[in-house]
Amino acid sequence: MSERLGFGMRSAENGSQAEPSGDSRAGGAPGEPPPDEPLPAGARVDLEKERAESQADEVLDALDAELVGLAPVKTRIREIAALLLVDRVRARYGIDSGRPNLHMCFTGSPGTGKTTVAVRLAELLHRLGYVRKGHLVSVTRDDLVGQYVGHTAPKTKEVLKRAMGGVLFIDEAYYLYRAENERDYGQEAIEILLQVMENQRDDLVVVLAGYKDRMDSFFSSNPGMSSRIAHHIDFPDYQTGELEAIGHLMMEREGYRLAPETAPVFRDYLERRRGRPRFANARSVRNAIERARLRHASRLLARGGEVDRDDLTTLLPDDFLASRVFTAVRP
Amino acid sequence: MRITQGTFSYLPELSDEEIAKQVAYALDQGWPCSIEFTDDPHPRNSYWEMWGLPMFDLTDPAGVLMEIKECRKAYPGRYVRLNAYDARYGRQTTALSFIVQRPAEEPGFRLDREEAGDRRIRYRTHPYALDRPEGERYARGE
User: Fold this and answer.
1) A158 vs B64: CB contact, 8 Å cut-off?
2) Which residues of chain B are within 8 Å of residue A161 when distances are taken between CB atoms?
3) Which residues in chain B touch residue A158, judged by CB atoms under 8 angstroms apart?
4) pLDDT tens digit string along B102-115?
């Protein structure tokens, strides 16, 4: 354990930085005490200070500010952050609690922010010293499963090696297992994955993502996978109000704004779009804004003449009203 | 006779943690690592067999260490070395190479003298291990 901590992990760095100002220096040890020396039982550690040092709050606050809604997801991630922080303090007293199992499964409809949360999670785990590098390797079935006998194992291993020290994000993980084809190589990839998830828990965190119903059937045919994943997090669909907030955030980032009379049209648009098939939450909002931008640009060109800053940044109701959503009969 | 070749060859054997630190340094420099093994210890034998392909795009030494352990498990009685390749233009060569496993017993080399024309003498080094066929040279370990 102490060897690991010395190996470029944050807790060790912070431990040695924090030590000189703490009480342990009064113990008479000249110079820096070794970071792996346990604190005496009577020593007190300021949790607030630990928290500030880990800089985890920045990531959590960014998560709150940039992601709308998703309350259950945020709560769970805050809980994980708290656990890791407390574990770090416990480790300084020499209490060995073993590394928590942090493999996760994100389920939810398309466009509910699974990938975005995974990126934040990697960053957060890195700041709390759980993973060494904090990069995210995002893969799908194609990256893991080979095309002929003997192709799968090296392929899966290569991806796992790349992800070590960070987070492996397997999008649409249910494709790994194809029930209809017994000789599908996906099963081999799953076995290797399970082995590494179990034996090298220190080296990487695996996050599976996919739609709820299909992940459920994936887990029911792979019970070993389900039991090795501690956190099953469900991403709820967005409400219209949340979608609106997401849309405003996106437009702000791209230097657009809605004219006051456009806001109700935009809300109406989202309301109608939600009821239509193939609605993909935030991704549909992005696409709607992209199309409004197209119409906005062609409207400006068609009008000709001079434009000012307001013209260039303001989306009018017509830019949304031209959408098929308004002309089609509601089902 | 303990064979010395590559970096750190005069140091005691590196532990796995020390190997991981060296690998971490190589990865930080952007050098991809590869693993090779052989049972022909002759110093001029530069063509060792590759253990899998070179490992590109890694950020953490854990993956390299995993492969080293697997190679050791598959070939417990052979030499295993780790290479780190610097692909930068102008260098394009192996930047770091060291032995991470050696057979339990290394019988060493003998010096052969050969009399050539005009009483000239040619010398060559001959590893005792080479007297046996490939794969059985350090058979005790395997």
Assistant:
1) no
2) 55, 58, 62-64, 66-67
3) 55
4) 998 888 999 999 99
State the helix-helix crossing angle for A281-303 and A240-253, rounded to 10 degrees.
50
Sign, CA torsion B127/B128/B133/B134: negative
Which residues of chain A make contact with B14, given a CB cutoff of 8 A?
A: none
Q: Is the confidence metric ipTM above 0.90 for this complex?
A: no
Q: Pick B16-101's CATH classification: 3.40.50.410, 2.40.480.10, 3.40.50.620, 3.30.190.10.
A: 3.30.190.10
As a residue count, chain A comes to 331
Domain-by-domain residue ranges, chain B?
Answer: 16-101
Q: Count CB neighbours of B42 within 10 A.
A: 15
Q: Please state whether the predicted TM-score (pTM) of the whole model is above 0.90.
A: no
CA distances from B47 to A300, B6, B44 (A): 67, 14, 9
pLDDT tens track for A136-193: 999 999 999 999 988 999 999 999 999 999 999 999 999 998 878 778 888 899 999 9
Give the N- to C-terminal CA distance of chain A in Å, as an integer. Answer: 61
